[in-house]
Specification:
The protein is mainly beta and about 160 residues long. It has 2 domains: about 90 residues, Chitinase A, domain 3, CATH 3.10.50.40; about 50 residues, Thrombin, subunit H, CATH 2.40.10.330. About 10% of the residues lie in helices and about 40% in strands. Strands 1, 2, 3, 4 and 9 form a 5-stranded antiparallel β-sheet that branches. Strands 5-8-7-6 form a 4-stranded antiparallel β-sheet, with no helix packed on it. It is elongated, with a radius of gyration of 19 Å. The protein starts with 6 loop residues before the first strand and ends in a 12-residue tail after the last helix.
Length: about 160
């Protein structure tokens, strides 16, 4: 069966940056399962997987525009430390959710200097070219429930309580 819209696809992958550093991998674990054609994975990888079959192996280079986007320096802001009430030891690397113009935004603290804190709302991989080594483990038709929910259920997917 070929990968197409409305298919559940399970892949093993290793993700590296241009310097060869491993950023993420399914090695030693369960494959990643996603519903093809619904935006569950980044567009560049999804496009490269279309038409492939179980057992296929491929190398995929995804530029930022087809990955997590380009960095947007407007998402880097300095805010008063008082915005972090109740956080006694504020450190770079800490992650928070802030209220943005269009709803909640994940931010990471990049600098703490006196009464000012620099936060970055860019995705950690924004602006990064992504290099995937992928093996297609399984391709199957999605269930009606998976299609109505917009995601995979069961192993490698979402579990409802």
């Amino acid at each position: 069966m070929q990968i197409a819209e409305r298919c559940v696809v399970s892949i093993h992958y290793t993700l590296k940056d241009d310097g060869g550093e491993v950023l993420d991998s399914s090695a030693g674990g369960e494959p990643l399962a996603y519903l093809h054609g619904t935006g569950n994975i980044i567009p560049g990888l999804e496009k490269a997987l279309a038409g492939k079959r179980a057992g296929d192996k491929l190398s995929v280079r995804v530029e930022p525009a087809e990955g997590y986007g380009e960095r947007d320096e407007r998402l880097v802001q300095q805010v008063p430390r008082r915005m972090f009430q109740g956080v006694s030891d504020l450190q770079p690397g800490m992650r928070f959710h802030a209220q943005g113009d269009h709803g909640p935004v994940a931010v990471i603290v990049t600098r703490v200097a006196g009464d000012m804190v620099t936060v970055d709302g860019n995705h950690a991989l924004a602006g990064v070219t992504l290099n995937f080594e992928v093996e297609v483990a399984q391709v199957r038709d999605a269930t009606l429930e998976e299609l109505s929910h917009g995601h995979v259920h069961g192993p490698g997917g979402h579990h409802h309580e």
